[in-house]
Amino acid sequence: MERISAGHYHTTYKIGDVTVTSLRDGYVDMPTRRLRQPENRAFADDLPSQVPLVDGALRLSVNAFAIDDGHEIMLIDTGTSNAWHATMGLLPQALSEAKIANDRIGTVAFTHTHLDHIHGLILPDGRDGFPQLSRLLVPRLELGMFRAVTRLERFHGKAEPFDAGQRLGANIEAIATLGHEVGHMCFRVTSGGETLLIWGDIVHVPSLQFERPEVAWEFDADQDEARASRLRILALAADNAYCIAGAHLDSPGVGRVLRAERGFRFEPL
Fold this sequence. Notes:
Metallo-beta-lactamase, Chain A; 5 helices; 7-stranded mixed beta sheet; mainly beta; globular
């Protein structure tokens, strides 16, 4: 992968014949108790020193990713809009900076249906975020969860399910990474002999969870399953020299996974 442009809110890469843009929606600060050791134990005074804190909190980037194959643009996740903290909702600025017109986005696909991934379908003023949206893809096991979100009611009928192994485009395949949520998915983007995994919420705190993938997240629907998915995807990326892109890795959130003496390590691209 080659970086071809960057700004405050975006970074664009070339992978074969495909362009992938990391879009910065903002950040969210979370309490350290969100990190969970096996048996759902929170860290107390034993939080490893390598974890950076901002005023005592974990700062997580929130990123979405646009895939342009030259014919259409697919957006993976949409950020938060005004549905959560005021430190998020910057996706429209990121698209503008990246010179991606929102009416060029024909497909939106979700890694999962947590609020920081889906609410960007609607702008803060109530207008559609993507006026030419023709496909809205939701993991099959979370379709009911999506249709329970009242604020997004006008999109309920447009939502269509997808499954692991399904090809969502000529260069994009869905891979099941269950655990963080019941239908959590990542997307394998392949072109020109290169591969990028856009992996959603496999890792929340990169300073710790690469080295110690057994550390889970309080909001994981199934912590044991999330741990297993994380280990499997980290090994898949490291052993095949895939690039990865994470929703909560420090913006722009793109790099490589390498095996380390203990666990793995992340090398930003």
